[in-house]
């Protein structure tokens, strides 16, 4: 994600994905394009047998059903689960084909064993790494989630979970939890050399030791469109007020909005280094305000 | 919620051993039209708990399913139609799902079952 605040830090998912946030997923075409592109890649990694038969798939964190629509387009049946009622309302309004469940992935999936041909999840599972309520233990919730996910898939099925892990520790935490539940597989990182287009896919397999699929863009190429950007808009927050520290790059205590002497000196030095002539010497008057008679 | 989904759902309260099948409390049931796809029906049939499906279909007022069915019945067009109708076209809009073991009630509103657990249940 890189820029802005992570939505996971602002509020729990059922609060963060409020009605206004949910609305974005139906009106913001950029967001919709990103979701579609991520779903397409997840389906590619899911590698369903190419026999044209429709499958029964699971969409974890289905939200407003954008990813589900991609599944419908390919003729699959799907069941989606999400914790945000507002997002599910939007999905119901859009009359998506799949069935919707209101549930918390961290409480386990309310599903019978061996029923689904595969599972996808777009930008949802990293939410489980946070403890949103007192007494919630992310490790236990992840364990419960992966155990029930493992149980509800048929043998040979795959689960492809696109995640935004916060640093290497969280990526390991997710992978470890999945492996402990019995999955084989691992993390596929698309466009690993690009900060903004980098995408993590947790590719999990049930009962088959198949090789991990290759990552896209591993050789340093860039994605060909801008759909590779972040999928969740960070919440706008007011900038922190600058502190007035004299001599720093900000203004004085009396004029905190000014850029200050330090900033002027830095800029003058930069200009000298670039070879500009006629840069005035640094004196005690540098960066001072002129008297009013000027 | 379609009966296909109902057939896949099982109560996930931690102490529950066998949370399948949910009993259905139907308040409003709707019928929608879905594309008839014999390939999908044949693909999914082995995974369906047939008796649970039949019972659920009758609760929602969609009869027509024979008492017994096996792989051979899939060759029968009439059976496939009835199976398709029960599985994909009868939708529970308002009502509740009831856990068979604990009697815990999960409300269904606008076709979406609320399966969130209380803290002491997970």
UniProtKB/TrEMBL annotation, chain A:
Residues 58-153 form the Methyltransferase type domain. GO terms for cellular component: cytoplasm; nucleolus. Its main location: cytoplasm. Residues 254-272 have a biased composition (Basic and acidic residues). Residues 235-294 are annotated as: Disordered. GO terms for molecular function: rRNA (guanine) methyltransferase activity. It is found in: Cytoplasm; Nucleus. GO terms for biological process: rRNA (guanine-N7)-methylation. Gene3D superfamilies: Vaccinia Virus protein VP39 (3.40.50.150). Keywords: Cytoplasm, Methyltransferase, Nucleus, S-adenosyl-L-methionine, Transferase. It holds the Pfam family Methyltransf_11. Residues 204-291 form the 18S rRNA (guanine(1575)-N(7))-methyltransferase Bud23 C-terminal domain. Belongs to the class I-like SAM-binding methyltransferase superfamily. BUD23/WBSCR22 family. This is 18S rRNA (Guanine-N(7))-methyltransferase.
Automatic annotation (TrEMBL), chain B:
One of its GO terms (biological process) is tRNA methylation. One of its GO terms (molecular function) is protein heterodimerization activity. Belongs to the TRM112 family. This is Trm112p-like protein. Interacts with TRM9. Transmembrane segments: none annotated. It comes from Elliptochloris bilobata. PANTHER family: MULTIFUNCTIONAL METHYLTRANSFERASE SUBUNIT TRM112-LIKE PROTEIN, UPF0315 PROTEIN-RELATED.
